[in-house]
Amino acid sequence: MLLATENAPPGKRAWYGMFPQLGAPIGFLCSTGVFLLLTECLDESQFLAWGWRIPFLASALLVLVGLYVRLRLTETPAFQRAIANEERVRLPMATVLAQHPLALVLGTFAATATFVLFYLMTVFALSWGTSALGYARETFLVLQMGGVLFFAATIPLSALLADRRGRRAVLIGATLAIGLYGLAFAPLFGAGSTAGTFAFLALGLALMGLTYGPLGTALAELFPTAVRYTGASLTFNLAGIVGASLAPYMATWLAGRYGIAAVGYYLSVAAAVSLLALLLIRPRAGEA
């Protein structure tokens, strides 16, 4: 993310920063496609015995590509200027915790709704769809793959808007929409029709793209260059822990105890928390 944004020309930072974000929908499509292909070619016993290992072994090729790229990278111009100005710090994590705790906390909660939404649209939706709604796993995965296309389509759209209107403004608008979507969660997902289920997935994942596209850029801009990598990484991963680690289990418990509408309210509450954090964030000078 930092390599993309810190090498971006003026006015194009969110647009450059959205390309790493496209890895999420592309990865979902690839992994789900491989799973569906294997289940078509192998019976269940073959898949459980050895077939599931094929994607993991094939991913070793991606590791080699990633290693090649990382070994050939150079520092960004922004970080080279920080070194030249003797702004580099010895312990970036300690500096973030000591000098930028508010940015760390607000950035974490600002991104929480994004992760809650993603895991509700993927992990929980698949579980609920194949159990409570009676879909075959393969059928629901195809519906999810169709929904992920909307995820991929709205990432560049959100980046264009973020460069024109500001990252924070786009995230606030997307978070408001996520909160409203939570209120419509039960009517859409509980409709019982394939068309209704697809509309539920397409709309939810489209909102995911709107919030996910400028998110990495926005988190990076919370911190000065010398600790930007550490600060952005901490906020992104802490938001994943807060938003993603509990979401599938909390949603399953809520749905089983109070019904599917409670899951939507859970999403709306997460959106309200993220909205409050976004409103409290004050962009750094020159950022949006």
CATH topology: Growth Hormone, Chain: A
Q: For this structure, what is the CATH class?
A: Mainly Alpha
Distance between the termini: 17 Å
Radius of gyration: 20 Å
Structural class: mainly alpha
Which CATH architecture would you pick?
Answer: Up-down Bundle
Overall mean pLDDT score? Answer: 90
For the sheet with most strands, the description reads: none
The CATH fourth-level homologous superfamily: MFS general substrate transporter like domains
Q: Tell me the strand percentage band.
A: under 5%
Q: Quick one: how many beta strands?
A: 0
Number of helices: 18
Please write the string of helix (H) and strand (E) elements.
HHHHHHHHHHHHHHHHHH
* Percentage of residues assigned to helices: over 70%
**pLDDT < 50 stretches:** none
Brief description of this entry?
The chain has helices at residues 2-6, 13-21, 23-41, 44-51, 53-58, 60-71, 77-84, 92-99, 101-110, 112-131, 137-165, 167-183, 185-189, 194-212, 215-220, 228-244, 247-258, 260-280.
Annotation keywords:
single chain, 288 residues, mainly alpha, Growth Hormone, Chain: A, 18 helices
Description:
With 288 residues, this protein is mainly α. It has one domain (14-280): MFS general substrate transporter like domains (Growth Hormone, Chain: A, Up-down Bundle), CATH 1.20.1250. It contains 18 helices and no strands. It has helices at 2-6, 13-21, 23-41, 44-51, 53-58, 60-71, 77-84, 92-99, 101-110, 112-131, 137-165, 167-183, 185-189, 194-212, 215-220, 228-244, 247-258, 260-280. The radius of gyration is 20 Å and the shape is globular.
